[in-house]
Amino acid sequence: MSSDPALTSAIAHWGARFVANGVVLTDFEEVTASMNSYDDWCAAWSARAAHHEKVAQEALAKGHFLTAGEAFQRAGVYYHFAAFLFVNDVPQMKVAHMKAVACRQAALPHLTPPGERVGIPFEGKTLYGILRKPAGVAKPPVMVMAVGLDSTKEETEAYEAPFLARGIAILVFDGPGQGEAQYDLAIRGDYEAPVKAVIDTIETRADLDSKRVGMWGVSLGGYYAPRAAAFDKRIKACIALGGPFDWGAAWDGLPALTREAFRVRSHVNTPEDARRNAQTLSLEGIAQNITCPMFIVNGRLDRIVPPGDAERLAREVKGEAELMMIDDGNHIANNRGYRWRSQSADWMKERLSAVMPDNGSAQSAAR
User: Fold this and answer.
1) How far is CA 93 from CA 74, 105, 143, 246, 361, in A?
2) Which residue ranges in the chain fall short of pLDDT 70?
3) Taking the model in full, what pTM does it have?
4) Domains assigned to the chain
5) Quick one: which H or E segment has residue 216?
6) Tell me, what's the pLDDT at 31?
7) For helices 90-107 and 41-61, what crossing angle results, to 10°?
8) Which residues, other chains included, contact 196 with Cβ-Cβ below 8 Å and sequence gap of 6+?
9) Distance between CA atoms of 198 and 338, rounded to whole angstroms?
């Protein structure tokens, strides 16, 4: 057992998330057992990711495309987790992160359904996302997916699957301070701005039903999604998973590694500056502007976001709000995913099905 408290904390609190989102349990146990210090984290996970990447390349060379897609997807998740909070060594983190991007990109043509990389113009830069459309649905509704402080579009395949299975397209993207955008654009509280750019891009596509747009966010994305829904009425339904109501108010209770990642991705130099930016991430005086239906989830045992934040959001929104508080759930209740993952997808399907589809849409039979 390591004596490094950062490593001990990471192992204790991240296992459920890793396994729920695509890491093999045996790999988690073996890789974490091989480390003596959190300084070993990125290299150890990158080495195991490289093993899965090699499996993918071998399958691809044999023309076994489904196997290649699965292995590239898995390798991308491992590289992502190598990088996701390794802000103590940003150059090393970025190498692993770019490998995650490349592996998921290699996987996309071979997934079921396949995906495509999408560029979204935003304030003179480009945000990058992944679009996947359900098979057999012409002009499907689409759900915009907002990731969190340490998640990226390379982690979300397991989150995407229930929605795709129910006939909903997904467009997951890296916004300011996230994933590919973190190097050029800082975290910002007014996340409605990048979401507007994403929905504007959806409206340019004839293969998506821009009249039926849902919004989804996980962890810090569970703040970003309702924040966007408060301002952009093109969002017809919203799912918030483990999101803070007021990040600044939660600041002092956050793990040190989380605060440091926020500082780095806020592009500021001091903890005091990071705290000031955290105070801009708030639904105070804004939640009451949310009128679309909301599905709100968190675990009562969350050590990052106070569970009362989910309860407050449910109280203050003006539209329909369904709160699922999982008493034995951790952050986002990833340890109890069977309680909410499929159920939230059923909820989104019902809400988007209730919206009049675009007249040009030829929908498949209900699933």
Assistant:
1) 18, 18, 29, 28, 43
2) 1-2, 359-367
3) 0.95
4) 1-111 (1.20.1440.110), 113-357 (3.40.50.1820)
5) strand 213-218
6) 97
7) 20
8) 228, 231, 232
9) 29
